[in-house]
Specification:
It contains 2 helices and 4 strands, in the order ββαββα. With about 80 residues, the protein is an alpha+beta fold. The chain has a domain of about 50 residues. It has a two-stranded antiparallel sheet with strand order 1-2. Strands 3-4 form a two-stranded antiparallel sheet.
Length: about 80
């Protein structure tokens, strides 16, 4: 399939037909790789931060029980020693 190169601001790009995107499972983003002068587009299977909320849920529960850092510190305390 011949696809023309088009100008996009200061860059160049191609338009990928919807049927090709659907066939390859490309929805929002791809990983672009270059190997020996060949451009390879790999569909992004996961969102970059997928699963973070679930993975951090146990930490959130602990954080609600006790603060990570005491909130009763006086920022004007004269006894602070900085390395």
């Amino acid at each position: 399939m011949r696809v023309p190169i088009v100008s996009i601001g200061n860059s160049k790009g191609i338009r990928i037909p919807k049927a090709v995107l659907r066939q390859c499972g490309i929805e929002e983003a791809v990983h672009l790789e270059v190997e020996e002068g060949t451009i390879i587009l790999v569909p992004e299977k996961e969102k970059p931060r997928a699963g973070w909320r679930e993975a951090l849920a146990p930490l959130q529960a602990v954080a609600e029980e006790a603060p990570f850092w005491p909130d009763d510190l006086d920022p004007d305390f004269d006894g602070w020693e900085w390395p």
